[in-house]
Amino acid sequence: MDVRAIVLIGPAGESNDRPTPVTDSQENFAGIPFSILPVLGHTALGRVVECLKCAGIDSVTVLSAANAESPFVKDSDHPKIKWQNVADAQLWRAAEDEFDHLARGGAELVLVVRLGAYAEIEIDPLLQFHLDQCNHITQVAAADGPLDYFVLSGSRRNDAAFLLRNKLGRMRVQARPYITGGYVNRLQTAADLRRLTLDSLLQKTSIRPQGEQVRPGVWLGQGAKIDHNVRLVAPCYIGPYARVRSGSLITRGSSLEHHTIVDCGTVVEASTLLPFSYLGPGLDLVHSVVGSNRIASVKHAAELEIEDKTLVSVVPTSSIWRTVRHASRLVSFVPHQIFVNLFGGRKAQESRPCLESIDSDFDPRTVARPVVQDRQPLTPSVVTRMREYGNQ
Amino acid sequence: METSRPVVVKRMPDKVNRQEAQKFFADVQPFVTSDRPQLVFDLSQVKQLDAAGVEMLLRCVAEVMKRDGDLKLASPSRQASMVLELTRTDRLFEIYASSTEAARSFSGFLPNAMQSISAFPRSGADGTQMAA
């Protein structure tokens, strides 16, 4: 049987059947759809295409409304799939045209999938169900509602056109849906992305971390560099060419995707660093997703743009630029230190408080020189408490 | 991932104050200072854990890390879990439901055996937990 597939990457249409209303701010992080963001080295799109290929569907067309210049889009463009970038408004029209093209090319069944949700669906039982029910269109549904996952008969062009013109929201003829019992993640918010990462680390999905399991529950990608005195607490994933600098702690299901940098003494707990992200020194990142100069907090359900490059920044995607940047930092390090030593002292002198302007009761020396004997020694418990109150 | 090195399981006393912590550390010191130690501390009996006890755990994990080993915690009591969570030291350790599973985890990853001490927040409400 000739079965082909169309995978759509773009915003969902409006439908009363959907479990939650989908708005423009959902299903993406910093304008990049979750389906093309890597989770433990694999994207949801990559996994879906892989499943389709495993089921013997060789003809897969991806219609993407995501920003074509994004490095994530470029990474996702696989040679074995037909990739087409389309404008947001033209997505459904392009899907209709592609369906016509496939049907004319002899496709008997066409799978139309919008990502969207990440769902692990067995293709063969789905196709069998469609044939057994003699449906024009079969929609896949999970326990919590329908999915944008359809099987269309190639000969039913009018039904397909109606479905695609209604952005997968309505069918011309209602049919019994196929209920899947597989893993489903709606991938609507950063919390869903974190949940998918955690579920994959805990082996609840078929996504396996890309890399070698160096210790039980700790995966390292090729070329990942871990400095000394770094604590990796399982389960965690360090992607290819990621760098974790000295004194850092990566714990509780954290995932550092490829080419990320975690600077000295930073704690990454239950968080995801998207590719080409830099996380500054001495930070405490908890329950968050970081990437493209943005932090999405799962705990607070908020997304924030960070302008301070010392906290969060972006690593150049080009290896040449990365090398140039490292070299320039190395060259400028010694002059910078000389400058700091020469002018740092004078700056401290200039910032000394003016004694005349302060009340006579106030003794600035007590502030400038804290009593040494009253200081608590730096025991591990004191350090722990210091970390708790802001990584001083 | 098979390992031939022994895994030492040590049960912590019910009261871990400064005095008990020192005594406990003296007991485990030979294991902690061995080559690539693999230790499991069973916290099921712990009824009272103070800062000195936490400090002792941190000292142990620091020593173990220096020697390229690992220290895991098993079946922490409610009181121990609360103190570890309060001092945010729980994230420094892999915590398992039982000492057997903690010992087995040195030779293979056991996602279902991990202690569900960290609730996964979702839109302000607690969702699924880290492990069943």
Q: What's the gist of this structure?
A:
The complex is a heterodimer of chains A (392) and B (132). Chain A has 392 residues and is α/β, with parallel strands linked by helices. Helix content of chain A is 28%, strand content 26%.
Relevant terms:
heterodimer; A: 392 residues; alpha/beta; seven-stranded mixed beta sheet; 30 strands; elongated; disordered C terminus; B: 132 residues; four-stranded parallel beta sheet; two-stranded parallel ribbon; 23% strand; globular
Description:
The complex is a heterodimer of chains A (392) and B (132). Chain A is α/β, with parallel strands linked by helices and 392 residues long. The termini of chain A are far apart. Helix content of chain A is 28%, strand content 26%. In chain A, helix 3 (91-104) runs antiparallel to helix 5 (157-165). Mean pLDDT of chain A is 83; it is low at 19-24, 353-360, 366-378 and 382-392. In chain B, the strands form 3 sheets. Chain B has a 4-stranded parallel β-sheet with strand order 1-3-5-6. A two-stranded parallel sheet of chain B has the order 2-4. A two-stranded antiparallel ribbon of chain B has the order 7-8. In chain B, 35% of the residues lie in helices and 23% in strands. Chain B has 132 residues and is of the alpha/beta class. In chain B, a hairpin with a 2-residue loop joins strand 7 (119-122) and strand 8. Chain B has one domain (8-103): STAS domain (Transcription Regulator spoIIAA), CATH 3.30.750.24. In chain B, helix 1 runs parallel beside helix 2 (51-66). The two termini of chain B are 24 Å apart. The A-B interface holds A 189, 191, 194-195, 198, 201-204, 213, 215-217, 229, 231, 233-235, 249, 251-253, 267, 269-270, 287, 298-301, 379-381, 384-385, 387-388 and B 1, 51-52, 54-55, 58-59, 61-62, 65, 70, 87-89, 91-94, 105-112, 114, 118, 120-124, 127-128, 130-131.
Helical content of chain B, roughly?
25-40%
Q: Could you say what the CATH topology of chain B is called?
A: Transcription Regulator spoIIAA
Oligomer: heterodimer
Strand order of the largest sheet of chain B: 1-3-5-6
Give the radius of gyration of chain B.
15 Å
Shape assignment of chain B: globular
> What value does the Rg of chain A take, in angstroms?
26 Å
Instruction: Name the CATH superfamily classification of chain B.
Output: STAS domain
User: How many separate domains make up the residues of chain B?
Assistant: 1
Largest sheet of chain A: 8 strands, mixed
Q: For the record, give the distance between the C-alpha atoms at the N and C termini of chain B, rounded to a whole number.
A: 24 Å
Number of DSSP E strands of chain A: 30
Query: How much strand content do the residues of chain B show?
Result: 15-25%
Portion of residues in helices of chain A?
25-40%
Please state the overall shape of chain A, judged from the principal axes of the Cα atoms.
Answer: elongated
Distance between the termini of chain A: 65 Å
**Average pLDDT value of chain A?**
83
Count of DSSP H/I helices of chain A: 9
> Tell me, what is the CATH class of chain B?
Alpha Beta
Strand content range of chain A: 25-35%
